[in-house]
Write a structure and sequence with these properties.
membrane, Ser/Thr_kinase_AS, two-stranded antiparallel sheet, nucleotide-binding
Length: 227
């Protein structure tokens, strides 16, 4: 009959672009760093939470958290985007709604248990813990660009110094699982209370053992206390 349906997805426009774009071009002060970190942790805690009721939502794990999938708002807080790989927790059966797509997350941000395939894909908490690992790497990216007394580091991706620009799973597995390397914490961070505190948080995000990592909600509360 000559009719068709168009499906439109209308979202907010964030002119600052992705966190990756923003940090590549600009550095931040300690307060802005903290607000960015807090807003990302708040977003992740909200995703991970099961909310019951008519306006409720299932618990969701992102599975591809990285600076290119985080947008910077005009007030310099952040929001999480690109839920193309996300999985949801089905409470009634305590199972995970794994998508049929064979796409995997970004290798550079993959948690050790994802890289070595020991992750329990039938347990929703496993995916939340892998998200938290990636969050720790994002916090490191922001902290490097924090300007304290005119001193800051150039923007770099996590593991820039040990893998090639487009690393293979094997490369990342060697660095993260076998050698158990993590991004370097510059000595200058110890001299700034905010940077020192946030470096302790990121270290608790990227523990080798998934169950030892902080929850997104715990990170949110810790960062709230630093504001």
């Amino acid at each position: 009959n000559g009719t068709w349906t168009q499906l439109w997805l209308v979202t907010d426009y964030h002119e600052n672009g992705s966190l990756f774009d923003f940090l590549t071009a600009r550095c931040v002060d300690p307060d802005t760093m903290l607000e960015m970190a807090y807003s990302i942790a708040t977003g992740l805690a909200h995703l991970h939470m099961d909310i019951v009721g008519t306006r409720g939502k299932p618990a969701i794990a992102h599975r591809d958290l990285k600076s290119k999938n985080i947008l910077v708002k005009s007030n310099l807080t952040c929001c999480i985007g690109d839920l193309g790989l996300a999985v949801r927790h089905i409470v009634t059966t305590d199972t995970v709604d794994i998508p049929s797509t064979h796409r995997v997350g970004t290798k550079r941000y993959m948690a050790p248990e994802v890289l070595d395939e020991t992750i329990n894909v039938y347990q929703f908490d496993s995916f939340k813990r892998a998200d938290v690992y990636a969050l720790g790497l994002v916090l490191w990216e922001i902290a490097r660009r924090c300007n304290v007394d005119g001193i800051y580091d150039e923007y770099q991706l996590p593991f820039y110094d040990v893998v090639q620009p487009d690393p293979t799973i094997e490369e990342m597995r060697k660095v993260v699982c076998v050698d158990q390397q993590r991004p370097c914490i510059p000595s200058r961070w110890v001299a700034c209370d905010t940077l020192h505190a946030i470096s302790k948080v990121m270290k608790e995000c990227w523990y080798q053992h998934p169950a030892a990592r902080l929850s997104a909600l715990r990170i949110k509360k810790t960062l709230a206390n630093l504001r």
